[in-house]
Amino acid sequence: MKSFVHTISGYDALSQLSYSSKMNTSWEFLVALKEKGRETASKWLQGDFKEVGLKSTFDVEEHFFDKF
Prior knowledge:
Elements: H1 11-14, H2 27-48, H3 60-65
C-alpha cells in the first residue's frame, strides 16, 4: 500500500510571533491563533485537498533529509 504525505504548516503565521508569545495564555491571543489555524487549513483545503489519495503534497526528503 502506498502512502501519501501532506502537511498543513503554520510556519508563516507563527514565525511572525515573538519568543515571548509562547508564554501568552490570554484568551484573545488563543482565539487569534485558532483563527490563523483555520485560515491556514482553509487555504490548504482549497489548494491541496484534491490531491489526497492521489499523490503527496509534501516532500519528506526535501524537508527532512536533504538538510544534512
